[in-house]
Every structure is written in structure tokens, then in C-alpha cells.
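Lab notebook: predicted structure, single chain.

Context: the supervisor wants predicted structures on file for every construct in the current expression panel, including those that have not yet been purified. This is the next one on the list. No modifications to the sequence; it matches the entry in the shared construct table.
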Amino acid sequence: LRLGGIFGPGQSSKKYGPNSFIDSALKRSEIFIYGDGKEIRDLIFINDLVKILSYFSTNNTTGVINIATGKALHFLTIVRLLQVLLPDKISIKHGPRTGIKLDLKFNASHLRKYLPKDFTFTPFKEALKIIQTQKETEILEENFEEALKYKNQEDDLLVKLGDLKKKNNKEQEKILGTVTRADIAGVISRMTKIPLTELMLEE
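Prediction complete. Output recorded below exactly as produced.
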């Protein structure tokens, strides 16, 4: 079995393609593509790949078979689809291609002979939506963990300041020594929405 390009939920956002495009679009409202983005790739959705591998693992098959959809897309076409699917306006940034332009297309006619007649590949837009949902959930979880970290820092600071009122002068100085300007500035910034850089003035 010869596999083509694979994409789907859980794939690293560092790998150039649909996953990295969605990650960048959701986090920065922009997508970076190399050159004109017209390299062609035949990409198979991971859910479809699992079904195909499961089928071949339980059926006698011989010969070399390309595991691909037989329908290749330009990277730029994928980006255009995302501009329509995603809620925010997405800008496209072009950079120089770092290698030679390479198109990867596969003949999937042999594969079709072996698969059940009712087998269908997941529509590309639907696959992108599945990845989008997974990535949005992942970003929400990351933001929650970050917010929880800040909340714990704020709680710790408030405890220190509360203890401060109960201490004598020497004990107050000791507690203040554990509270940094960055701690205080961070809390104020999150409460007032004033950029941290404006609060962190030089001594």
C-alpha cells in the first residue's frame, strides 16, 4: 500500500498543509504559503485512511495499490476554501519557495477496484470543518489553562497582600520581597486591559 498525503485532527500544525493553515488562521487570522501556492497534492483524510486500512487488513489483496483520492488540489485552493469556511477574515502571506516546485498526484483507479462500491471519501470541506472544530477546542483548552495559571498567580498575590496587613514592619518587608513588580503589573494589566509593556516602567 502506497500512501499519499495524509491530513486530519491531531496532526502537528508544523506540517505544511491544511492543519497548519487552520491553526494559523484561527490564531493569527493569516495563512502563509510558499511561492504562488499552486503545488498540487492528493490528500486523504485520516478517517478515510483508517477505514481503507481496516478493509485491506481483512481482505485478500495483491499488488501495489495507491491509497489516495485521485483528486489533487492546489494549496492555494485549500486556503481559498478556508477563507470561506472560517468566521474571521483571513489574509494570505506569500513567501519564497524553499525548494523546487513539486506536484504529487496519484492514480487511484486500482484502489477503487478493491473498495466496496458504497465507499465514499469524506468531502474536503467537511474534513476541513472537522479539523476546525478540533483546533478550536484545542485553543479553548489552551486559553483556559493559561487563564487558570493567571488566576492562581493573582490568588497567590492577594494572599500575600492580605497577610501583609497583619504583619509588623519587618515582616511586611519580608513578604514584599517575594512580590515582584512583574506580579503586580500582570494583575493590573489583566484587570485594566492596559498593555503590560506600558506598566513595566524602568526603575
